[in-house]
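Incident review: delayed structure delivery

Summary: a single-chain prediction request sat in the queue longer than the usual turnaround. Root cause was a stuck worker, restarted by the on-call engineer. No data loss occurred. The affected request and its eventual output are reproduced below so the record is complete for anyone auditing the incident later.

Affected input:
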Amino acid sequence: MTKRILDIRPNEFKDLTKDDIIQSINASEGRTMVSEVICAAMPMLYDVSNAELAASLGADIILLNVYDVNKPYLMGFEPLPNKTVVESLKEKVGRVIGINLEPVDNKEMLEKKDTIDTGRTATAENARLAYEQGVQLLVLTGNPKTGVSNDAIISSLKAIRKELGEKLVLVAGKMHSSGTAGEASSRIIDKKTINDFIEAGADIILIPAPGTVPGITLEFVKAMTDFVHSKGKMVLTTIGTSQEGASVETIRQIALMCKMAGADMHHIGDTGFFGMAVPENIFEYSKTIRGVRHTYRRMAMK
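Output delivered after worker restart:
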């Protein structure tokens, strides 16, 4: 039987299968911490990468943003000999490593659209490369102004699931509109979209945390989460609106609302300043959802 993610030691994370990861998260009952970092950002501590810092503060899963499968790198991090960036990171930090891939679309935009490198797009080929590089979890989502849409997420899910079968954990949803008109505020997700994501192959549904997007209330997230759970899937709530740089009091409030809504996994974003959340907010979020005992255990485990 798979352990709770709370009890998995760093040297065990790198060998977890998709089913292992999902079962260990489910067994931890809403106490899984995901910290996102921007690969292209300078490290906050100069000679210690932001991924290593985030792991040291209590994260169970490190999510790499703007990771390019064609040009993989992480600022401030030197890969081990004959190993990829992701393989090396799994060895050094002892965490599940995921990346974002972006299902861009050509729909009407709320603002000028940014063009992203092809190695960041959510194609089946890029997902295959990510898997071969050691990635364990893919989040199909969008950065600001990239024009990612829910329809494009559905198409990418189908293509990636067909390409890779059950090799990777697939997470689907948007933390904010990504600049796409008609998918902002509380229109960012609904039950039909959730159902479409699940039918297309999503294992975990991403929903903005209460209070992070206009109109996304505790009641809204609770209703969406209950629907996801009724379908036998899990929910990742996210802070993707720079509130990872808000006060610790704000972080506590968001964390508790996510817990009350039924979140299985808790994400904190990557632009507290720029590159990762304010360090004390990762620590505070972790303490809020699981207390000091499990936070310190995760920080101290070897």
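Verification: The beta strands are 32-38, 61-65, 96-101, 137-140, 169-172, 204-208, 234-239, 265-268.
Action items: add queue-age alerting; document worker restart procedure.
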